[in-house]
Every structure is written in structure tokens, then in C-alpha cells.
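Give me the fold.
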Amino acid sequence: MSKLVATHTAALPECGLPESALPVPVLREAALPESGLPESALPVPVLRESALPVPGLPESALSYADRTLRRHDKPHRIIAGAMHYFRIHPDQWQDRIERLVSMGVNTLDTYVAWNFHQPAKGIAPDFDGPRDLTRFIRLAGEAGLDVIVRPGPYICAEWDNGGFPAWVTADPRMVLRSSDPLFIAAVESWFDVLIPVLAPLQWIHGGPIVALQVENEYGSYGDDARYLRWNRKALLDRGITEMLFTADGGTDYFLDGGSLPEVWAAATLGSRGEEADATWKRRRPGEPFFTVEFWNGWFDHWGEDHHTRDAQDASAEVKKILDLSGSVCLYMAHGGTNFGLTAGANHDGVIQPTVTSYDSDAPIGEDGSLGEKYHAMREIFFQAQGRDLTPVPDHLQEQVPVLDEQCFEMAQGVSLLDFVRAGEAVVSVKPLSFEELGLDRGLVHYQASAVLPRGGGFLKIGGLHDRAYVWIGGRYVGVLHDGNARDGIAVPGDGNLETLEILVENQGRINYGPFLGQGKGILEGVFVNQRLVFHWEQRVVNLERPLTQLLAATGNCGFGDVGSHAGGPGQSAAVPGFFHGQFHVSTPADTHLALPGFGKGVVWINGFLLGRFWDIGPQVTLYIPSPLLVVGTNIVTVLDYEGGGTYGQLRNKPDLGIVGVSHVEDLS
């Protein structure tokens, strides 16, 4: 997805299954969920237990000629919706797919996030539980959907680091997304594992996958055609026989860098589809027009308004594409959630971190709700396929069950400084980056001693990524970020040696543009006026470790004395640090968590790292899916970097912030 604008580092268990034992999807017509649609209207793949090519079928499900897309030699249009398995709790995959089917699509589209499966170097990629890509694809097939897979390795998607593991992009010698041998070798090692998972799920082997994407919107990044051809060949060499395509913005500029003559070119856009279709007629004669990303909504950054798009406007643009006999995929049909620390960031002069919700004003809401846009798109999709508009099944029309609204107390635990000081120190002359310290996501506590000039001076940070809280002699003095760190912050001084403490937060790795792969932490140095400060201690705070381990490191499990270092960015009565609360549930259901009075930080539910919060908005509530809750007592744990509140709220509906004007993304 073109934009203007860290998964666990602990060892993951190896699957332990030989390649021959990998699950091969078996689709049965009887396995289709009740959808309210006539069975004859659903594209039902016939899956077989064998991974051998099915006799009598062509090499791929899709083909085209004379601007007409064909599916097994019959005229066909892809009417698709994007949803990402890594943004949905796995217990809800089936429900969200049913909602997608009922909207009238015939295809599900998903990215594959490399860093979701292999966050740590040297550890085998994980395809179990929430990472069970095979199960997700099989569920889509069993629901009667074709599947498009976009394996990257770059995915953008407002996902941390554009899907690349931080250990890959940490190599300063590597040229990302190019034919550089170091980069190619890294991707080959990933594809050697990923593609054998996908290949048996292709249509030719009885599975639902009918197309795969070569790279992702490369025309907005580079012009290394040699790399694009390698990416295509890497898929073919590993057994991919279904249709391949590239995806780029809908103008000549993006096609110039991202398309290949021998690969079907698809478009990504949010408006002006008729203009893009004319460009395709001129540039790609004979190819059917396919908008693989139609941006019917948009994502949010912290500190901005909540983006929405008018349902009638979005559906009218989709209809224009379908009226041109084009194919279309809604990005997103269901956005889901950037759980934990997986939200990415953009960069436009300063970093623009993405919020925890990836609702994206999609037809299917973050909590599964069906809004006006769902029904508008559904009507268009049914009409385009010549189908009678049947009612949405009753069980999907019903309001998603939610907990009753309630408030619960939050008690203060260990202070922020006591927590971040508890780790083992790594000593260096100059400050070390997150990458040099082996940390993907989280915090680093930097400490050094320096003489502060009589009368005071300015503490400056070169190459700060992203946000730094500063203490002098245990007293909080302010916050710096990548936009003002070189100017610095005024600090008092009397010519004596003082202890400097700087806590740096990674707010999300950049997922789009030339700063993709940029490091985190202090990349250049710390200055008192123009003088560099040397000899540092660094303590890594990996927030993706199990919560029990994080709390145990403080020696008091997060409760007890708040410590002696009061005061923080908000200068509230509460000391920045941990806060703990609980609420009772008789029957688990969805809910939406608000934290009034809290500042900026992260929150866990029953030990699961739910995501980031920040009082600057726009997002106010964080979605808690029902599978994260248990009957009885449920524990809420908050780590606030800037203050703290006294209570939490469970609300019965989301609050994603103040809505700005209807947003239509337009690339030119």
C-alpha cells in the first residue's frame, strides 16, 4: 500500500515436521459455512489430499488475453477483500472470513509478514498458532474463496519495518530491495521455508491460491529490474505455477520502476481508476485491469485526526472500475489490529508512528461490525456478478456481543526509572543502537556522567530514533524526539559532574519510503552543547518478553514502593511506571479499553501485549477481542512513560478519535 506520509526476540519452537507432513488443504463442498448465499454463486474449489498436479487442469487457475481475465478458460473478475491473518486473533479468523464471504467477494487477499514468523536470527520460522498461515488459507478455501498471497519480502502494510525482521535490516552493508547479494541471500533463506508452505496450497494442487505477487509497489522505491526478475524466478524455482503479478500506483511513474514486461501488472489506488485504466490500455495492452489495492479507507498516525471515507463515494469509485470490466480488491476489507508493538511508521520530516488500531474505516470494522460501507460495497459486488441481493445471514447481522460498561481501579506499581534501571548494563564508549544491542522493539535506558557547564547548557542528541525522556541527577528535565533532538533541551549546571539518564523509545519502524530499515536508538551521539559525551551504560528493555519476566526483573513483581524518583513528563501526581487493575467476567465478550488520565505507553491483558496508547490520540480505546479474556478475574497491566491514572474503563463501542474530513488518497 503506497503511503504519504517487534515481534518476540525469544527463541521460537521449531515445527519439527518434515516437509511431507505439512498440512495440505482438503476442501469439501459440505464444509462451506452458512452464508445466506446460494451455493451455486460461490466459487467452490475442489481440494484433494494429494499435492501432485491435478490431471486435466491447466498450469494455473487464471489466464488472460485481449484484456479479459479468465478462470479455467471462463471469463472472470476478481472481486476481493484484503484481510491479514497477523492482525486478527486466530479464534476469530473463521468469523471474519464468513463476513467477507457474505459481502459478495470471491477472493481473499493477504500479505505474509516475514518478521511475524521469524523475528530472531538463527531461529526457524514459526507457522503455528497465530502464525498458522496454512490454516488461514484453508479456512478461506473452505468458505469458497480463492486466495491471493503477497509474500513480499517487503509488504509495507503500515506494519513494523515493512515486514522485514530487524535482524535483516540491521546489516549496514546490505542494500535493501535490490539485487545486492547480501539481501538476496537473506531473502532466499526465507523463501526456502515460506514457499514450500504455500506451494501445496495452489489451485493446481487442489488448494485455493490462484495468484501471488512479485515484490510490492516497487515502482515507488527503486528501479532494479534485475531484482524484480530475481524475485519472480525465486517463486517459480520453488514450485509456484499460479499467476504472478506486480502491484504499483496507477500512473506511468510507478509502472516505470515497478513493472516487468513478462508479469501481469496490477494497480494500487484510491481514486481516478478510469485514468489508470487508460494508462494500462496504453502501457500494458492486452492485460485486464486489476486494482489489487483500492483504498476505501485509510490508516491513522498518532496526533492526527481519525481518517474515514464516505461509503457512497468509495463504493461509487469501485463501481467505476467494475463497469470497466476491471477486477478489484478492497484494501482493507477488514483491517484488524496492530497488536503489541507491530504498528509501523511513516516519515515526512519527522517520524509518524501508526496507531494500534488498523480499523482503516474498512467495511468490516476492527471488532467485526458491519457498517454502511459494508452494505454499499455488498450491493455493488452482487450487482457486478449478476446475483440477487440476498439478506446478510442473521448471525452476522446481530450486534457483536460486548461486555457491560464498567470502571475498575488501577494501582501503582514499580516506577519507570526503577524498572528500566534493573537490567544488566552493556558498556561502550559511544551510545549503542538498538540493533547493536540486539533489540528489535521496546526501550533502551542510556546512562553516563558529564560535567554540565556553570549556568547550564543544552543537551543534544544526534540521530535520535525515536523519542527520549531525559533525567539529570534523577530529576526529570524533558523529552526530545527526532524533530527537535539536534536543537536539544536546556539543562541546569554548576560545573559539576552529573548523571545523565536517557530512556529511548522505538515508536515503530518505518514501513515505507527511502528510510525503510532505519535503525533505532541513539545513532550518532549525545552532546553537552558541542561536546560529545563518552562512556555509556545501556540497559535493554525488551517489552516483548513475557510480562512475568519483566516484572520479576524488578524484584517486586511490579507492585510496592514507587521508588524515590518522582516526577515525569506529565508531572502528574502519579509516578510514571507500572499500574495494575482487574475486572471480572462471567462470559467473555469483546470490549474496548480506555485509560483516562494515562499518558503514553503500552498495556497488557492477562499477560498479552495488547498495544500502544497515547493521550494525544486520535485513538482513545483499544479493542480487546473476547478470546483474550477468561471467566473470572482478568488482569490489566499498564506501563506509562509519562504519568498515570487511577482507573480504567471498559466501553461497549470503539472510540478511534475525532473524525476529519472524508479522506481520499490520491497518488500523482
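Confidence is low (pLDDT under 50) at residues 2-54, 558-572.
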